[in-house]
Design brief:
With 423 residues, the chain is an alpha+beta fold. It has 14 helices and ten strands. Strand 2 and strand 3 form a beta hairpin.
Amino acid sequence: MMGHGTFPMEENRPASAFRRYRYGGCLAGCGVLLAAVLAFSLRLAYAGILEQEGGLAALARAAALDPWNASYHAALADLLERHGLNPEPELALACRLDPHHAGHWIRRAIRAEMRGEIAAAERSYLEAARVDHQFAPRTALMNFYFRQGDAPNFWIWARRSFERSYGDRAAAFQLCWMTTPDPAAILERALPPDAETLRQFLVFAADRAGPRQAMPVGRALLDLRDIESRNALLNYCDRLRQAGLLDDAKTIWDGMARRGLVPANEPGNLLTNPLFRTLPSGRGFDWRLFPTPEVALTPADPELGFSVDFSGDQPEACPLIRQIVPVPEESLSFGVEYRTSSAADNGLRVAVEDAVAGEAAKPLLEAGIEPSLYWTVLRLPVPRAKSRFVCVAVRYRRKPGTVRYSGRVEFRRLRLSGNSSGR
């Protein structure tokens, strides 16, 4: 028996020794594990150093040290190919280790295609597109089917490519054009309703086929009602107009006006932006201004229209403002109100001309702006034009025997209407 106040020290010694043994074993095990991790880390670090060296032997050693790193095998395959050696085993291993890397599959596909193994190449291209839904794998398939002359699959992958396209799409457009040089067919078969794609293709199609043949693309872009496409549509409208395709240009312009992208006509007035509610853009069928350092053209409030300030040092003759206007096949009526700041001869003339015949032809209407310090109404009949478009213009020309005009002339309430619409 134990005396009072004594402890059973001898009985606890085996358990304490076991705990010390277990604790020591854990420390030893952790040390071994730490050493293994450190050794593995050093191995990977050394493999990385070898990979950075870039030589064939160094890359082979890096791939051996870190055999699960797909990028090492892909880089080694690249070097083997450069040295005229077979890279296929390394490429195959890279694909197995990283099956979601589309670039590895595309490289295998290209090599198989070059060897004439078309079925194997197609499988690799398709696998690249399966694991990566972005533009590069899809356009690789598009190119593959183009080279194989497989039109049905070409158009399938052309559309899928453009659905993921970005940046400059000219190369992809060119492939489509080499397959079918028809903007309408390419639009229908390959292009999604994407504004940026259509903006680029509108320029491409107009360059390749001419502005008229690009009209289906212009209409498709209009239908998207995309405000960021305004400048592209204006460029296209101007291109049509400069090519003499005024009816087509007006179709684009009217479509833009209905969507609020450009000024619309006032009711009963054939002129665009006649009250100068928006600053004239000089584009399409809007007013085009011709300011110079000596002649200031200033749109005023909606009632006034615009004013012209002459310094007195302006050229002997210069255009001031003009607009091309589509008109009905009938005689017209032109009207404007004006006033001058001086009773001196101002040399201003308003003219309505056949837009197709050009400035060299005799104007349908030409009238001078007589000096008047008060608002004066000028209304004149305009004979029927031979074409469906006229040009309304205001010009300055110094009259012989007079000095150059110095002062202001204000215009408001410009109006051009068909006689059947009333005055």
